[in-house]
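Journal club side-thread
Mid-discussion, someone asked how the predicted structure for our own chain would compare to the paper's figures. Pasting it here so we can look after the session.
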Amino acid sequence: MASELLKRFNMEKILTKFKQAILVFVLGVLMIVLALSVIELIILGIEQLLSPPRFLLDITQLTEIFSFVLMLVIGLELIESIEREQLSIINVKVL
């Protein structure tokens, strides 16, 4: 009965379109956030490299930059997985 209702009102098409709209919105937000984060990382790196002592970073500065880079990599991986979901591609890697 539920499948008949889905077919009658084209709910499958509506749900697919809704899902695609949500994915496009999330991808757009992620792209904006990643672009701003790259700019912030560049500014942070320049500020920390030019602060005294010049061109030397202590462990806290290195940790801050490294964590920022890792967050960017995680964001890129998230975008890639959303793209795969949108294209319905299953990528299996053997480690």
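Post-session note: Residues 2-87 form one domain.
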